[in-house]
Amino acid sequence: MFKDGIQLYPDADEDVNDFIELVQQDLIGCCGFSNDDEGYKQWGQNMYFNCSVSDSMKDLNKLACAVPESCCKYKDGEIKNLLCGAGVLNKSPSEVSNQIYTRGCLKGIGDIIAQNSLVFGIIIAVVLVVQMTTIYFAKNLIFQIKQQIRKWRYNHNR
Fold first, then answer.
1. CA 123 to chain centre
2. Residue 31, Cβ neighbours under 10 Å: how many?
3. What is the pLDDT of residue 54?
4. What is the pLDDT of residue 60?
5. Which residues contact 111 (CB under 8 A, 6 or more apart)?
6. Taking a C-beta distance cutoff of 8 angstroms, is the pair 73, 100 a contact?
7. Model confidence over 5-44: pLDDT tens digits?
8. Element (H, E) at 150
9. Is the pTM of this model over 0.90?
10. Which residues on adjacent β-strands are paired with residue 100?
């Protein structure tokens, strides 16, 4: 969905566009879908952002060789600029890394998981302990109920 959304952006469904913007700007700080440090170049597959526009049309199409505004890095209190990512697709990551997020979102997710693997491991362990404890108590309750049924039958069959 994310990869297809990049190709169709901004003509895609509004929810898909919002999801792409949320992931890129707010959740992960990434640009594009790929699993590398040049994820922003994937926006070249989009018909609005690709660099194949003729030089005479580039003056009309300010989005040519650009990335969406959700790829841009902002400092606190800085005013957002819709053209902050203009002309970055034909530049190297080192040239634009202060201006936009360059890593792909899959790499961003991988980095987050790697940085927080201990936290994820603890959460998984706690969930497993809670589940196993619940299963133990449920089995114990079943055993006690069966024991009471046997006692009741024994006392009523005398």
1. 19
2. 32
3. 57
4. 58
5. 103
6. yes
7. 888 898 888 999 999 999 999 889 999 999 999 999 999 9
8. helix 117-156
9. no
10. 72
Q: List the structure tokens of 64.
A: 């040519």
Query: Given the structure tokens 């989005």, which residue do they identify?
Result: 63
d(CA 53, CA 60): 10
Instruction: Give the position of tokens 């133990």.
Output: 136
CA distances from 82 to 2, 67, 142 (A): 21, 10, 63
The answer to whether residue 81 scores a pLDDT higher than 70 is yes
Q: Residue 3 has what pLDDT?
A: 81
CA 28 – CA 100 distance, rounded (Å): 13
Per domain, the residue ranges of the chain are 2-115, 119-158
DSSP state, 100?
B
Residue type for 51, please? C
- Structure token digits, residue 131: 């589940």
Which residue matches tokens 């603890």? Answer: 122
What six digits make up the tokens of 40?
């922003």
Task: Give residue 69's identity as a one-letter amino acid code.
Answer: E
